[in-house]
Structures are given as structure tokens and as C-alpha cells.
Amino acid sequence: MKYAFIERHRHRWPISLACEVLGVSPSGYHERKAREIGDTSRPRRNMSNDALLVHIRAVHAETKGEYGWPRVWKELLVRGIRVGKQRVQKLMRLHGIKARSKRKYKATTDSNHSLPVAQNLLQRDFAPAAPDLVWSSDITYIATDEGWLYLSVVIDLFSRQVVGWSMKPHMRTELVGDALRMAWFRRHPSPGLIFHSDRGSQYCSHEFQSALSGYGMRSSMSERCLRPDTQSTIHPSAACGLTRAGTGVMPLR
């Protein structure tokens, strides 16, 4: 019944995801489908395109989309399916099956600017004595099928909790400004809070610095010669793997 459910909803949910949720293997699903269309009743070298496509999709799903047609073809040969490489290439191209492209590194810090830079008030002291004395912020990027998304996070260094965040398809000052605004409206810290960041142009901008001053916060920035402090403020055991900056994904409180 699980395979039947996956087949009925294969246009709604990815087969690999449905198999994982239901606790079955993608290869088992594809083998069952191959049997239903009569794959086992004919020699594998005379396999129909429909049957071959089932095996191609199985290999593609099991490798999480990492294989292009050359590696799929070699894997089919290993599995005893004798088929020409041109045929595999043609079928995969016809049905839009291709290797998942590797995401390139995206720089999120532009420190080559002429804007004023704040002093490092944090001095690598990552253990404030109480909440809402020191906040740290950074920007990371998230790859999607439609392009890059950028996430700005503000973290309270005392509790290591996310107090504000913003996500947008760009890295303009508005991104970090919205994250700061959320954090302030949720926490209303007393004047004098240290807001620590890197030297990125978004944080150095007149607009963002004016917002900090309006909230009574003191700007602090990492020194150029050091590893950015915003990448050191979360203990490795707390990081959840989402960010480049090491800020991790913390419960929003």
C-alpha cells in the first residue's frame, strides 16, 4: 500500500521524500514499478524506454540527484543493465533528469568601502553577565531552486537565542535593518547594549548606524586582522549547520 500511495502522489511530492517519510527505499519503489510494466519478462538488453527510465530514476533518486548521465550509465552497467550511453543521455535529457549543480560560495561581507568603522567593543568577550547586554549579528545565504536567499540573524550572546531575523532575495541594508528592528521590538533592551557585527557595508551604512543610535545601542565591529567575531560567538555544540557565519539556528524567543 505504501508503494501505491507513492505512485498516486508522485506528481505532488518527490519520490525520494515520500519514500523517506513512509520508511521504504526508492530502489524498492522503482523495482516494483518495473515489475508492473513487465520489465522482468524481457531480457534487460532489450528493455523498453519506460522500463529503462524506471531504473534511471532509481539511480538518480538513490544518489540524491548527484549523478549526471555518464555516472548513471556506469551505475546501470554495474547493476547488470546493458544499455548504450547515448540512449541513457537521450532519455535523461528528454525527461529533464540532470545532475544537481553544486552551489558556489557567496560572499556576504563587503568590507572594502570608505564608510566609518566602529571600534571593537566586544574584545572577544563572548560571555556577557545578563541578557540583552550584547547582541551579535551576521548574514548568511541559502540556496533555493529559484536563486539565493539571504538571512540576517541577531543573537543575544547571553542566551545564544535568536532575537531577530530577516530573509530577503538581496543583501541591501534593509536586510540587516529589518532583523535589528524585529529584535528591538521583541526585547526592548536598555540603552547601552553592544551590537557586534563584521565590517560589512550593510552594518557600516549611515542608515543602519542611525537606527542603532535611535535605539540607544553601541556599535561594535570585528577587527580586520582577526577572524570575524560574529563567526565565533556560538559554541560548536550549539550550531545547527544552517549558516556560514556559525550563528546556527536557535529557538526564537
Describe the secondary-structure layout:
Layout: H1 2-8, H2 15-22, H3 26-36, H4 49-62, H5 69-78, H6 85-94, E1 134-144, E2 147-156, E3 161-168, H7 173-187, E4 194-197, H8 201-204, H9 206-214, E5 218-221
Parallel strand pairs: 1-4, 4-5
Antiparallel strand pairs: 1-2, 2-3
Descriptive notes:
- With about 250 residues, the protein is an alpha/beta fold.
- It folds into two domains: about 1-95, no CATH class; about 135-240, Nucleotidyltransferase, domain 5 (2-Layer Sandwich), CATH 3.30.420.
- The chain is built from nine helices and five strands; from the N terminus they run ααααααβββαβααβ.
- It has helices at about 1-10, 15-20, 25-35, 50-60, 70-80, 85-95, 175-185, 200-205, 205-215; strands at about 135-145, 145-155, 160-170, 195, 220.
- Strands 3-2-1-4-5 form a five-stranded mixed β-sheet.
- Residues about 40-45 and about 230-253 have low confidence and may be disordered.
